[in-house]
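Before a colleague's protein record goes any further, I have to sign it off. Would you go through it and say whether the fold makes sense for this chain? Take the sequence as given and treat only the tokens as open to question. The record follows directly below this note.
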Amino acid sequence: MLPLFNRLISPANAHAFWIGVAFMVLGNFFFALNDTMGKILVGTFAVSQVLAIRSIGAFLVLGPMLWAGRGTGRIRRPWLQLVRIGVATGDTALFYAAVAYLPLADVFTFYMAGPIYVAAMSSVMPGGAVGWRRWLVILAGFGGVVIALGPSFTVYSPGILYALVGSFCYAGALMMNKVLVKTSDTALATLQALGALIGGGAFAFFQWTPPGAVDIGLLLLLGIVACLAHLLISRAVKLTPVSVLAPFQYSLLLWGIGFGILVFGDVPNERILLGAAIIATAGLFLLYSESRARGRLRADAVMKDFP
């Protein structure tokens, strides 16, 4: 059974392209389900407690994988791994804190700007020069964030603050994923879960609310769902080009709107939808620009091989 499954998710599979697309959509569904459950649970338990028990749930998935693989291999660049653990834990914790105050669609909109922040931050990295056209698109993406903020920009709201800071943590995690590309998916997920367990557990010690049996089950399920979402999307990227998957990444907002309406009765207003549309368009343009630049580099490299 396992060899059959391995062949199914192999890049060599003739249907790998469409399997990758399906995994991306399904992974985003699981992320939206995880965030919906998290929004419910943070109404009863502290974010730190949710984060800690959620991480234990993740190990119910990661444990068998680690056992089958006899570990994660050598962990490279440990200090950068610690930075990634910090920003990834902040990303998750701040998301749960934000949804305690805001509708799911609102928080998803702010987090969708993460790739735009990455493009802006890459301009200060070696070889990360950003042309004036890309800067215009980046500024348009920031404009989408400001539109989504709307009147809330001038009124203090903990949820708005958590969502904005969390979206920058998310961008930082994306940057670190690029830097640590040689680290296996299992190792990245394991280190992230371990960091969240330690960090969340340290704060949960002072904010502990005794959970019932059903609550423990839901908190563990939260970790299982989140871990499956991470693994599905990681596999999708290996099966299908990122440039193809990008539009399907924004299905997360659609799932979020659907869950928000069905579970909480939250209907996003025109301002949030307009801001989300601008952010998504800017993000897709940046990805298209990057894929074209990489294509030109590959073509130049091929031409240099000819005398």
